[in-house]
Design brief:
The protein is mainly α. It has six helices and two strands, in the order H-H-H-H-H-E-H-E.
Length: 127
């Protein structure tokens, strides 16, 4: 994953999952997806506390918590929870969730839901 926005969004989901008892969106895979990047992003955020929270007084960890909870997580978690809810609503009305894998792309490249080059799968809902 080379996209900085995707990494920071994944970090916000991972941090929320690992540091909150009540989950808006429970992403148990986010930290594993990031691997060592989790710690690198956390450190970068802590080094940038003065940018995110001018005048902040407290520990780096307290600052990181505020950055994630107040600035990063709300939109990321809201979008993730919304998408999850919509998929569950579709499943409840008789649709089925499925994945289109890269092997499928090789066999049917003209399919409108084919995953972009370099992406292993695409989520889709089909009636």
């Amino acid at each position: 994953m080379d996209n900085a926005t995707a990494k920071v969004s994944c970090f916000a989901r991972a941090y929320h999952f690992e540091n909150n008892n009540t989950h808006i969106f429970a992403d148990s895979m986010a930290a594993r997806l990031l691997g060592d990047d989790f710690d690198h992003i956390a450190e970068s955020m802590m080094q940038g506390i003065v940018f995110f929270l001018p005048g902040f007084e407290g520990t780096k960890e307290e600052g990181l918590r505020l950055i994630v909870d107040k600035q990063l997580s709300p939109s990321v978690l809201g979008r993730s929870a919304y998408c999850e809810r919509k998929i569950l609503d579709e499943i409840a009305t008789g649709c089925s969730q499925y994945l289109i894998f890269a092997d499928y792309n090789k066999n049917t490249p003209e399919h409108p839901m084919a995953a972009p080059v370099g992406v292993d799968y695409v989520f889709a809902v089909r009636e």
